[in-house]
Amino acid sequence: MVQPLFLSRCRIAATRSSNKTIVNTLSSIKPTTTTTTTPPSYRHLAPQTRSLHRQSLHSRDLCIKHSTYPQQCSLRQYHSRYHPPLPLHEYTNSQTTILSAALEHVPEHGFTLQALTLGARDSGFLDVSVQLLPRGEFDLVLFWLASRRGLLRGKVEDGLFSSSSETDTKNATAAELPVDEKVKILILERLRMNEKIKDQWQGALALMSIPSNIPLSLSELHALSSDILTLAGDNSVDASWYTKRLAVSAVYASAETVMTQDSSPDFSATRAFVERRIEDSKAIGDKVDGVKQCLGFLGTTVVGLGRSWGVKI
């Protein structure tokens, strides 16, 4: 029977201390067989126990190597909705200070290293402090996108729908507005936030189109579309949850590109473009719903006809 590791060590220590003479005598005897290469710390254990012991030590070493705090293992190879992973573009206080100050220089210098350097100087940091941002100019783009989403949520809390003049119904309250109308208001309000940096936005689009930056760019676009639909009061729980966010993402991304070339007063051309795209998406959605209803009716008819003929369905 294999003994626990701590009992075996205690027994060995007691034997060595009480029978020191016998141990010295035995150590002078040359063994006739070849000795194993097992480490002395667990040579007395059975082969199966030694294997488990090695595996536990290896797991502990991996924990210490990959964890921020050695006493806690941060390795988690499963998904948990109770512990979602942190965003890849979450910033420290120093990074947030530099990026916030750099946004003031974007209208003039664009999303460039020069804007980051000026932002670091305004915040009291050295020029070399821009090295705190591992993605450089792309971090400035991500910070702009995330901060505008926060401003959009704040405008809704301040009564964007009740005070907006975008609705065709003058006396309609925020609760009476349909979801599509709220989506249009939110998209246009988010586009207005790009008014000061319109001439610099093509450079930001170029940064976002770099292959290594595409995943985070799409993640931000999905976050924006999800925020827009949530703020508009959409409560979809079926497959349309995905299709609506995909449609809003397509409308906003295309409108953003159109806005960079829009020279009309108050961006009326961009507004008309958004209205047309929303109407098209709504028409496509109605047609898809009609096809679903038709297929459902045909399926029910076939099942009923088969059962009337005695088929077990």
From TrEMBL:
Q: Where is the Ubiquinone biosynthesis protein COQ9 HTH domain?
A: 95-120
Q: Which residues form the signal peptide?
A: none
- Pfam families, per the entry: COQ9, COQ9_N
Kindly list the GO CC terms recorded for this protein.
mitochondrial inner membrane
In what pathway does it function? Cofactor biosynthesis; ubiquinone biosynthesis
Q: Which InterPro entries match?
A: COQ9_C, COQ9_HTH, Ubiq_biosynth_COQ9
- Where does the source fall among the domains of life? Eukaryota
Instruction: Please provide, alphabetically and separated by semicolons, the GO molecular function terms listed in this UniProt record.
Output: lipid binding
Question: Which family is this protein grouped under?
Answer: Belongs to the COQ9 family.
Q: What does this protein do?
A: Membrane-associated protein that warps the membrane surface to access and bind aromatic isoprenes with high specificity, including ubiquinone (CoQ) isoprene intermediates and presents them directly to Coq7, therefore facilitating the Coq7-mediated hydroxylase step. Participates in the biosynthesis of coenzyme Q, also named ubiquinone, an essential lipid-soluble electron transporter for aerobic cellular respiration.
Q: What is this protein called?
A: Ubiquinone biosynthesis protein
Name of the coding gene: COQ9
